Amino acid sequence: CCVCGQSGATIMCRVENCGRWFHLPCAKEGGCICIYVTLYSSFCPEHRPQQDVQVTPEPGTECPICMEPVEDTKTFTTMVCPACKRAWFHRDCVQGQAMCAGALFFQCPLCRDREEFCVEMFLMGIRIPFRLPTWEDNDAFAELGEGHSQCNARECLYPGGREEAEEEGPWELLLCSSCAAEGTHRHCSGLRKSIRSWECDSC
């Protein structure tokens, strides 16, 4: 392996007559690039593809993903969006974003370009999985679509408990008209039937 010097299963640089070979786990450490689409080509540090964008970052430019400074020029570890040419990011950061977003939602973190950005990142060795984003796993954000549904009165008097309510009458659940983050049964807060709105103590 041209990176670690050890033997074992290896892959060769695609360039004819190069002769360099490396372990797949050693590729990133050694500055090699593996393209994870057909034809699954791999390149050594000398022959790896380079971004063809003739720009340099402004002094103090930060990666929009981790908010840490980037290098002052394009390198293996510092990349730029080919579409807007303003978003500079670390290779590790954009790789992490790709793994979370998946192919359907992977885009430039600044200008939101998808087509040109994805093609460039593929060619620069960023692995972009063909799957739904990780935030869709197990309905992780399903609760955000649900409204508040329990009585927050200091003492809930409803026999069915705080999380039960009726459509109307003394056990109708009213949500705070300002924040909608707390609720009460009418009877638990002494609210007459004619009262149509209620505010929690915080509001």
CATH class of the largest domain reads: Alpha Beta
Number of domains: 3
Rg over CA atoms: 28 Å
Residue share in helix: 10-25%
Euclidean distance between termini CA atoms: 65 Å
Would you tell me which CATH topology of the largest domain applies?
A: Herpes Virus-1
Structural class: little secondary structure
DSSP strand (E) fraction?
5-15%
CATH level-two architecture of the largest domain: 2-Layer Sandwich
Overall geometric form: elongated
Q: Looking across the biggest beta sheet, what order are the strands in?
A: 1-2
Total helix count?
A: 2
- Residue stretches low in confidence (pLDDT < 50, at least 5 long) are none
Q: Got a strand count?
A: 8
SSE pattern: EEEEEEHHEE
User: How can the largest sheet be summarized?
Assistant: 2 strands, antiparallel
Layout of helices and strands:
Blueprint (H helix, E strand, L loop, with lengths): L10 E2 L8 E2 L10 E2 L7 E2 L34 E3 L7 E3 H15 L9 H9 L49 E3 L7 E3 L18
Antiparallel strand pairs: 1-2, 3-4, 5-6, 7-8
